[in-house]
Structure formats: C-alpha cells, structure tokens
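New to this. Please check this protein:
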Amino acid sequence: EELDAELEAENIVGVLRNDKVRTSLSLAYPVNGRIVSEFGDRGDDDSMICYLGFETNRGAIVTSPAKGLVVFSGDFLNYQNMVIISNGEYRVFLYGMKKVFSSTGDVVEIGDYIGKMDEESKDLPIVKMELRKSGEPPDPRHWLLQTIEKGKK
C-alpha cells in the first residue's frame, strides 16, 4: 500500500500545521550513503516507489535534509520512527530510523541532527525520504540535484 502518512498523521495524531516557517525548498542527503531505491522504481509488490532509499552505516546519524518546521516526530504505524518537516509548501518525510532526536514543533536547518539509524541491524540500514505537496509525491531528485549543483550535499 502506498505511503500516505501525511494525511493519516493529520487524522490520527493531529500534526501541526506550518504557518510559521516559509522557505524555498532545498534538499540535501539525510545520511552519508548511497541511493538504493529510486523514485519511480517498482517495489516487491510492483507498486511505484515514491521515495528515495539511502543505505548507510549502522548507527549513522540522520540529518535534516531541509529547513523547516518539524510537524511530526515519533513512531508511526509500521514506518518505525518518522520525522516530517514542512517548509510551508512541501513536507519531507524521513522514516526507518531507530531513534529520533527532534521533537514536534522544532525548527530545523539543513544538517541538524534529527535521528540515528539502528546499530544492531543485520543488514545495512536504509532511511527513506519522501516529498509531498498537497498529498502528491513529486520526485525529490529535482531538488537534490539543484542543491548539489549549488555546491552543497
């Protein structure tokens, strides 16, 4: 089933609305690692993948890939720990972390520590990053490429 945590989270846990932080969207890698799942790929059940999956080291620190307001932080359904960051127009979802350092209501900058990956997993852990605008999932690679071209990673 396609992830639509933005709508579910608003209905179930009352996510904050971001009317405080308005910034243009730039995205950075949330971890040091490599992309192993790409937006538009097909999953095991043949459904389209709407996120980027970043494979990283056990115990890796997860940093904020965007500037904005943390509108949700915590355990959510079967996505493990999730952080949702809003820049006022887009929401960035990060999930698959073992621990979360940020709290709902925090204002974060690109590079701020927001979580940590599992240190004891058998396989290398993967953090997933999904972008949403009005419930729709645009391809986050567009903003990642723009940020890299400006000399940031």
About this structure: The longest strand covers residues 68-75.
